[in-house]
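Q: What structure does this chain adopt?
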Amino acid sequence: MGRGKFEVSDAIMEKLQNDPFPRHLGVELLELRPGYARVGMRVAEYMTNIHGLTHGGAVFTLADVALGNACNAWGDDQVAMNATIYYLKPSRPGEYLTATATAENMTRKTGLYRIAVVNESGQQVALFDGLVYRKSPPSPGA
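A:
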């Protein structure tokens, strides 16, 4: 897995890779650096809604995991304050979805992130905006 040009500590990597809920859903951490994360998940049959499509909660969770990884990769404690998702295209069981989170604006106490969720064909499934609160002081250079 690529970490990018900014190094993420081994302790943070271990913490993020062992997050219980994403592990339960089979979410994979594909790429990580401070302010950026890419995660993926194969949609399972149990992740569907009554229409046989991927449940919105599964898509939201994947985007939220990308957000949590990107913001906590800085090394300071950050938690979501607000999240908005726009569902753009349905997905189905068996599809592999990827969520890419990118920091758009950082202040001393907050961070605004945009997360794009795409399917294997590169079609955008959802767009997610997340606002985080930085509980502890930002790392130097953040």
